[in-house]
Design a protein that fits this description.
With 212 residues, the protein is mostly beta strands. It has 2 domains: 119 residues, Immunoglobulins (Immunoglobulin-like, Sandwich), CATH 2.60.40.10; 82 residues, Sandwich (Immunoglobulin-like). 0% of the residues lie in helices and 64% in strands. The strands form 3 sheets. Strands 1, 2, 3, 4, 5, 6, 7 and 8 form an 8-stranded antiparallel beta sheet that branches. 22% of the residues are buried.
């Protein structure tokens, strides 16, 4: 069960004038941002923003501060020209542990750009977790999701009811974040199987059912 903690960070944020290139000397902004929020849901972080109006808006680059440097983690296409509110969202499915800072780089159709103000959110909510596979029962494949609280070696394995190892799905070093892996049981017979995760001091096992 995932709990959602909503952090309403900033309201009525306007794009910062004077940053970027080709800024209008009249101070008229091509995109008016009316809200910019961050929401924590399970081990994901959702950024959501709303524009009041848009003029020649190509889109938004999403940037996250890491090691004192801003890095691009995504892009959302804009609506071009609009006089009505438009809602945008972006999911950071591998947020880093600790306090994070995000900003948007709004880009015009002609290539000029401006930055929003920065929002900050804590991500200490990240934890180790092994979710129930879906679909379940399944045939012939299913998805297994898990979360890692700290960088470590991660091993995800599948066993039959006799405890015999069927396959190793993951065995590698992974960073903090949310992951998913696909299990294809095309060559196996119907029955109950177990999948297990081991990472650092965390271990968990769940049951899944293959029906053919």
């Amino acid at each position: 069960m995932r709990s959602t903690i909503t952090f309403l960070i900033l309201f009525s944020i306007q794009l910062c004038a004077g940053i970027g290139v080709g800024t209008s000397g009249l101070g008229v902004l091509p995109v008016e941002l009316s809200s910019f929020t961050a929401n924590l849901s399970g081990s994901n972080l959702e950024l959501r923003w709303v524009t009041a109006t848009e003029v020649n808006n190509y889109g938004f680059e999403i940037e996250r501060l890491k090691d004192s440097k801003w890095e691009k983690i995504g892009f959302i296409l804009g609506h071009g020209n609009s006089n009505s509110p438009k809602t945008y969202s972006f999911i950071d499915d591998k947020p880093l542990k600790g306090k994070l800072q995000y900003r948007l780089k709004q880009i015009d159709n002609n290539g000029t750009f401006k930055y929003t103000k920065t929002i900050e959110v804590g991500t200490d909510f990240l934890k180790y977790d092994l979710a129930q596979n879906y679909p379940n029962p399944f045939n012939p494949s299913t998805v297994i999701e898990y979360s890692i609280h700290a960088t470590s070696n991660v091993k995800v394995e599948v066993y039959n009811v006799l405890g015999k190892l069927i396959t190793t799905l993951v065995n590698e070093n992974q960073e903090t974040g949310n992951y998913q892996v696909n299990f294809d049981a095309s060559g196996l017979s119907s029955g109950i199987y177990y999948y297990k995760i081991q990472s650092s001091n965390f271990a968990a096992t769940k049951i899944m059912l293959l029906l053919k």
